[in-house]
From TrEMBL, chains A, B:
Identification of the protein by name: Aspartoacylase
Positions of the Succinylglutamate desuccinylase/Aspartoacylase catalytic domain: 11-197
AstE/AspA barrel-sandwich hybrid domain location: 212-291
InterPro entries: AspA/AstE_fam, Aspartoacylase, AstE_AspA_cat, Aste_AspA_hybrid_dom
Cleaved signal peptide residues: none
Native species: Desulfovibrio gilichinskyi
SUPFAM superfamilies per record: Zn-dependent exopeptidases
Cross-referenced HAMAP family: Aspartoacylase (MF_00704)
Membrane-spanning residues: none
Cofactor note: Binds 1 zinc ion per subunit.
Required co-factors: Zn(2+)
Lineage: Bacteria, Pseudomonadati, Thermodesulfobacteriota, Desulfovibrionia, Desulfovibrionales
Length: 300, 300
């Protein structure tokens, strides 16, 4: 079945970085664009950008109290008792977006990095315009992975859900708190592709011929067998093999006490976010995704 | 000229991890050995181990107030006004070591990791027994790099200087706060080699035939041209090329504003600690070392 969608005319692209304060790449680009934003200029829309959690950036921490990128669910924003630092920050960001873009169609692009060996990823929910936009990025940049998560409270809690349309760009591997020239270039390339596509959609320049691409849809998170900071770690056979095939019986964990532990799933999956530093505190070792192959079509 | 040394009989090997609280590999091994330390047992000496900064480990931070591994200089320990958390911790660690090993010959081994692509490194000062010990490790494990820093207040401020003999083991690349199975194995292999060599020295089993190896001696630290967190980052041509040759004129920095910046040194050097996360706050981009080649001999 074809995935097809049209788009409203996009009035504003809003790019955020520093949603996780120790992911330096987006923060660097925001600072770069504050000095010279000609890179972002397209004639058919305005492009704005902002550093979403400057306090966490200053502290070189993912967040100060709670993960900002899980605070944007409407019912949480409306919860009057939700007054942690990041909950307050999310409330203010959301209201600023509403005020600044009242009546406008916005595309929100949130820039992230991962310690996992995942390359360039477009993160999106499975709403047709978002998934189509992600697919159009991959169609233009074949090295990109499209990582689709079913629309849910989980996806709606992300900053990117605050736009009319929203995608995340996730680049890795890179340690937290570090800048890498190649990762900055990858992020810039992905941002440029998104801007070019938005402009072509707006101006009728985008190709309406159906095209087929593969993408990955989220299945599940896989926890360490003994909780966070236990004996088990990612097995060296799995380390760095994001998006490769994981077969039942393959080694996934190793520990001095637990020895080698194998994947007990019933079918082949693709592991992602393997050994992501930010997920240790949650006890999450990696996620699994399923490869999909679909035809996409942009409607007028 | 030959570098030669004898050793006193080593009574105790003391292994520390967690001197930097976000270097998880050493912390993991200390916890492993707390459950089963048979891996460390050699008949000619006792092996002890300890987690040196458990508070920083709990917080997943390099340190809480100041770098513990710069606090061990005698004159700083004697400074009655030095009462930051890590200065107090260093004072107590040093006194514990004095009390527990009074009259004993100790070999202190401090386990570290780096975000730089440096492989397995034995860090030492240029005191003959320490450099010879490091050379013997490389002679046994050719993949090891020996990284020698001239004995100075800098080397004496390190925890490893608190033993009769002292070396550091530094393994990378690995992000801060992360465990990698392969890095745990590298660290274990290096620790085992040090223990085996100490045992052979003690029991007369070590080969006294002179041997030649290459090692690297520290020249200088190279700062970012615009201070910490400025526009310049490590150029992609340099990233990950630790221990390779850096020629005058090679690209070392890139920034959106500053463009490409070249190495202006007069001679070839070898860059190390390239893009080490912990050195951002000091504004240090990498260090340079010089390749040396010498003959070593263990004296009876």
């Amino acid at each position: 079945m074809q995935i097809k969608s049209s788009f409203n005319k996009i009035d504003n692209v809003v790019i955020s970085g520093g949603t996780h304060g120790n992911e330096a790449t987006g923060v660097y680009l925001i600072e770069e664009w504050e000095k010279d934003c000609s890179f972002l200029k397209r004639n058919s829309f305005e492009t704005d950008f902002f550093c979403s959690n400057p306090r966490a950036v200053d502290l070189n921490l993912r967040y100060t109290e709670t993960d900002l990128n899980r605070c944007f669910l409407d019912k949480d924003l409306e919860d009057e008792s939700a007054v942690s630092y990041e909950e307050l920050l999310a409330y203010k960001i959301k209201n600023n977006l509403k005020k600044n873009y009242a009546g406008k169609t916005t595309l929100l692009v949130d820039m992230h990095t991962t310690t996992s060996n995942m390359g360039i990823n477009i993160m999106c929910d499975d709403e047709a315009p978002n998934l189509l936009l992600a697919a159009m990025v991959k169609h233009r940049l074949p090295e990109v992975h499209v990582y689709c998560i079913k629309k849910s409270d989980r996806t709606d809690s992300c900053l990117r859900s605050s736009g009319t349309y929203g995608i995340g760009i996730e680049v890795g591997p890179i340690p937290q708190g570090i800048l890498r020239h190649d990762v900055v270039e990858s992020m810039r390339k992905a941002v440029a592709a998104v801007l070019d596509i938005a402009h072509e959609i707006n101006t009728g320049g985008a190709d309406e011929t159906p095209f087929s691409i593969e993408y990955f849809s989220h299945i599940a998170e896989v926890a360490y067998p003994d909780g966070p900071f236990g004996d088990a770690m990612i097995h060296k056979d799995l380390e760095g093999r994001d998006y490769e095939i994981l077969h039942p019986g393959d080694n996934i964990f190793y520990g001095a006490e637990c020895g080698n532990i194998q994947y007990e799933g019933k079918e082949e999956v693709h592991p992602v976010f393997i050994n992501e530093a930010a997920y240790y505190e949650k006890g999450l070792a990696f996620s699994t995704v399923k490869k999909e192959h679909r035809e996409f079509k942009l409607l007028k």
